[in-house]
UniProtKB/TrEMBL annotation:
InterPro entries, per database record: ABC_SsuA_sub-bd (IPR010067), NrtA/CpmA_ABC-bd_dom (IPR044527), Solute-binding_3/MltF_N (IPR001638)
Record's subcellular location: Cell inner membrane; Periplasm
Pfam families (UniProt xref): NMT1_2
Chief location category: membrane
Matching PROSITE patterns: PROKAR_LIPOPROTEIN
Lineage of producing organism: Bacteria, Bacillati, Bacillota, Bacilli, Bacillales
Domain of life of the organism encoding this protein: Bacteria
Protein name (database record): Aliphatic sulfonate ABC transporter substrate-binding protein
Gene3D superfamilies found in the cross-reference section: Periplasmic binding protein-like II
Signal peptide feature range: 1-20
PANTHER family: ALIPHATIC SULFONATES-BINDING PROTEIN-RELATED, TAURINE-BINDING PERIPLASMIC PROTEIN
């Protein structure tokens, strides 16, 4: 009887061992995928550096397949986050705020950079200062996006508003990579330009800097891009979320320690997405207007939201309780 029991036990162990071997083989061939989103803008350089240096892959481990998806604007990015097409990534604070207020499950868990928004005018438009913008046409990536709010806040403080709220400025939208051609055609007079596109227009078509980064509203304090994910991801998969933000932090630190190489990576990253290879001198000029940091100031986020409400982009004054989660960047 004991002999039979021993044979039975050995048989069970062999079966279990075989099952375990099959599971491991199956698991090895079925990696889980994490998708990171970002834009072809200078403020999103940490994503390009992390991609090039495989930082997300290093932090997430061999059992995770890392993919990247790029977006032309914050609206499409936020739709992808809400639908689960991406797990997180970099987006402007404006679209993230609007989505949070609308009930979308999104949390800011880190910043990417500050600065980098420049207001430029078309050569020949006659616009040399903010006083000349009244009655002119300006362009931003989207209505109510980060750069739009920064510009319209500045102009409203000067007593000039857009036609959207009964003012004289005409507002159109378009991708920043197309700003240069729209200036050349004379379709628009002023651009709320995220870097490096402001520097591109300065160098290539003699665009004039009307409002520098240091002067435009929230120019040096508001995160120009933030790292976001869903609160569901942050709460239910905190270990993976921490690995994502650790990789992002590593990329930000790398940029600050190796600016020359980071500039080259950014040039190549933008070229891969837009087909435009930018001069290094252009990126170097844009780099001076950008401060790369992963730290978030939630007070500035609230101030920016209040300004969005004052400009009537938001119907109600926003409450950002629970929007910024700093636990992963401590």
């Amino acid at each position: 009887m004991k002999k039979f029991a021993g044979i039975l036990m050995v048989g069970m162990l062999l079966i279990l061992g075989a099952c375990g071997g099959d599971d491991q083989a199956s698991g090895a061939g079925e990696k889980e995928t994490v998708t990171i989103g970002y834009f072809p803008n200078l403020n999103h350089a940490p994503a390009m550096v992390a991609k090039q240096k495989e930082m997300y892959k290093d932090h997430l481990g061999d059992n995770v397949n890392v993919e990247y998806k790029t977006f032309p604007n914050g609206s499409t990015f936020m739709k992808a986050l809400a639908s689960g097409d991406i797990e997180g990534g970099l987006v402007g604070p404006g679209p993230a705020m609007n989505s949070f207020i609308s009930g979308v499950d999104v949390q800011i868990i880190g910043a990417s950079s500050t600065g980098g928004t420049v207001i430029v005018s078309r050569d020949g438009s006659g616009i040399k200062s903010w006083k000349d913008i009244k009655g002119k046409t300006f362009i931003s990536p989207r209505v109510g996006c980060t750069h739009d709010v920064q510009f319209e806040t500045y102009m409203k403080n000067k007593g000039i508003t857009s036609d959207r709220i009964g003012g004289s400025m005409k507002h159109v939208t378009g991708e920043p990579a197309r700003y240069k051609s729209m200036f050349e055609k004379g379709d628009v007079d002023v651009a709320t330009a995220p870097e490096p596109w402001a520097s591109v227009m300065e160098k290539k078509i003699d665009a004039n800097v009307v409002i520098p980064t240091s002067d435009v509203s929230f120019g040096e304090t508001l995160p120009a891009a933030v790292f976001v994910t869903s609160s569901k991801m942050a709460e239910n998969n905190s270990e993976r979320t921490q690995k994502l933000i650790d990789a992002h932090k590593e990329a930000v630190k790398y940029i600050n320690q190796n600016p020359d190489e980071a500039i080259d990576i950014t040039i190549n990253g933008i070229a891969d997405i837009t087909g435009q290879t930018l001069d290094k001198s252009v990126i170097e000029n844009a780099w001076k207007r950008t401060n790369f940091t992963y730290k978030v100031n939630e007070n500035v986020i609230q101030q920016f939201g209040n300004s969005s409400h004052n400009l009537e982009f938001l119907k109600e004054k926003p409450d950002f309780t629970g929007f910024v989660n700093k636990s992963f960047i401590q």
